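EI: anyone free to look at a 165-residue chain?
SC: sure, send it
EI:
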Amino acid sequence: MPKKEIKKEFENEVLGIKRVERMTSGGRRLRFRTLVIVGNGKGKVGLGVAKGQDVQQAIEKSIKRAEKNIIKVPIVEGTIPHEVKAKYGAATVLLKPQSEGRGLVAGGTVRIICKMAGIKNISGKIIGKTRNKLTNAQATLVALKELKVKKHADSRNTTEEQVKK
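SC: here you go
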């Protein structure tokens, strides 16, 4: 019986790998924690964090968790519909829409998440004192969840057609 080929809808990118230890009576137990972002480049993105005995096992678990935690991001003409500021823990993220051709003007974690979501023109800034990739990634996802698409008052059509572009 031939194996069915599974069509991969999402691409993934590893944001961070950390070695974590815990002390037991027998000595140190070593594990790895990975942070993975998955996205399809068409408005869907997810974050996964998992631990495993080795790096590969932790990455596979993170990818599975990220695919379960997918959020839909409204994209209007290659950018976000409006400015948004969100806080998660010590991290605060500010995302601003940009005009066509400006590109991804964001650093580190925000840049990777926006790229995986399919946002082409955005300005992002991490405000706050944290350099923790995990909290910065979660703050970015909170900001993307807060985005709303305006509806036209004069017609029944929404800007959903623009979102699909």
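EI: The chain has a mean pLDDT of 89.
SC: 👍
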